[in-house]
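Follow-up to my post from last week.
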Amino acid sequence: QQPVQSPQAVILREGEDAVINCSSSKALYSVHWYRQKHGEAPVFLMILLKGGEQKGHDKISASFNEKKQQSSLYLTASQLSYSGTYFCGTRNSGYALNFGKGTSLLVTP
Amino acid sequence: NAGVTQTPKFRILKIGQSMTLQCTQDMNHNYMYWYRQDPGMGLKLIYYSVGAGITDKGEVPNGYNVSRSTTEDFPLRLELAAPSQTSVYFCASATSVRQETQYFGPGTRLLVL
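User reply:
Got it. Predicted complex:
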């Protein structure tokens, strides 16, 4: 079951904040966030396990609402290097991750 | 420590031809995955493996086959290539399911004409 990401695309100026959402119609065991730059492989950002935890990495953080089956990725004080496509991957059970279609983020000077 | 390596980087196939995409990891990971990525569609799981000798189908397995004879290698075989298999293929590996960080290879860009 592919999770739904929103928005599809966002354009920011350096220093602005952004929120990317990921929702699933099925109960989630975990949510994984990846960033992919054009022509490159996806790179792991963070994983959130069920329990409603929130994590942070530098100025990028994420939350996971298990009851709502939603996760949000927060990018604060965006930098040019944040540009790329962000994917959420969700695990319902078993071994497979289901990835969303991605959110394209462009940070401009 | 090279991580996950994939060969070739790019390949053009004619319809009906076959080929094997190679994937090797040197991190002693049990879990390995093959994804295809089409523009604007995210990553779709083709096959995965939880250890040597154990493989299972993902979301889009038709037209592909895999084998896992060693921990390090997880080749993906395309039989009778079709234009619909034009895509970018990524191999990934992970150490465990619960605290899973999937490490991706650089990808193979395949064009079927």
